[in-house]
Description:
Shape: globular
Number of strands: 3
Structural class: mainly alpha
Largest sheet: 3 strands, antiparallel
Radius of gyration: 18 Å
Strand order of the largest sheet: 1-3-2
CATH topology: Arc Repressor Mutant, subunit A
Oligomer: single chain
CATH architecture: Orthogonal Bundle
CATH superfamily: Winged helix-like DNA-binding domain superfamily/Winged helix DNA-binding domain
Amino acid sequence: xxxxxxxxxxxxxxxxxxxxxxxxxxxxxxxxxxxxxxxxxxxxxxxxxxxxxxxxxxxxxxxxxxxxxxxxxxxxxxxxxxxxxxxxxxxxxxxxxxxxxxxxxxxxxxxxxxxxxxxxxxxxxxxxxxxxxxxxxxxxxxxxxxxxxxxx
Length: 152
């Protein structure tokens, strides 16, 4: 393969991962529109449904995002009455994020979304086992990249 072949989009690892991510996120939209939330808001809610009262830094770390990306998202969610922010009494620099009653109630409506998404993606060509295997391999890749990148 010539050096220029490496510059072709079809030869890149990053593009299929990027494209698949965008397309899967698009598959979530019909389910999330019913809840009147965006995909990034759904991710934050899942973190808080798992364990309420996370710090901004904990949420950012879990999402592999910078706090300056997460903070505007959290402000919008607070405006929409999904969460509330509260400064730590121990350290005023630390902001804890909690679910509101509205944010907590969305959990019951969202509980079916993961299975609905898997059902919408699975077919004769793509089996549930393939999706599970893909998720496992992507998790391995993410762990590897996080452990090798000190900037994340």
